[in-house]
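Risk register update: the risk of archive-format incompatibility is retired. Evidence:
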Amino acid sequence: MTILEEIVAYKRKETEERKRLYPLDLLKKSIYYHSPSVSLKHYLLREDKVGIIAEFKRKSPSKGLINEQAEVEKTSIGYMQGGASALSVLTDNRFFGGSSKDLETARKFNYCPVLRKDFIIDTYQIYEAKSIGADAILLIAGILSKEEIHQFTALAHDLGMEVLLEFYDETELDRYDSNTDLVGINNRNLKNFEVNFDHAIQMASKLPSAAVKVAESGIQKPEDILLLRKSGFSGFLIGELFMRELYPEAACRKFIHEVEILSKNHS
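Archived output:
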């Protein structure tokens, strides 16, 4: 069993348990459930931003513990003050050390779009995402059928949220759904967690030119952002690069400042 298969198997059991603990009627009573969402797509295309989606992530299956000390409130506010276009929050606990409370905290203290990063395999998780304040959800093509992607996207839209549909392998591209708002290319193979940075550029050329593309994983330096922009990317999801620092928010601010300087020099 690959790491991804292990995660999905656990997620199915966990979701069934959460359904019993927190039924839909309870989720719908959340203060966020009927609140308007903020458009992730719009923020990534803003000309006054560089398109960074700054991620809060405590640990990962590939790297183990990344940052145990970071606080969601301080880090997320710092990300936004540093110029990030949006926030991504891991809500999986077993494998990534996150929680729904982490996203609720990020939502409470920030006005920007917040992406729920998790392994969504059930409609319940989409209702749950809305109830904790998410503006967008991640759907991973590698663990869903084309029919599920279409169904989950429609439900997210009905609830006022956007969808980032993530691909890794070319064999998954037949599951592309033009109704999704953004398309992500994960440079990290979710089966063995190896990173291949050139992968995003190759995959981008096989997607519709009109799709708003997001590069995920493997970004290490400002020059990578300029290279990816030239290949048609508008968003850049960065987590580990910031989170492995003692002060992730400071690392984010410095990185974005360097991107802005580099962009001016190349304009």
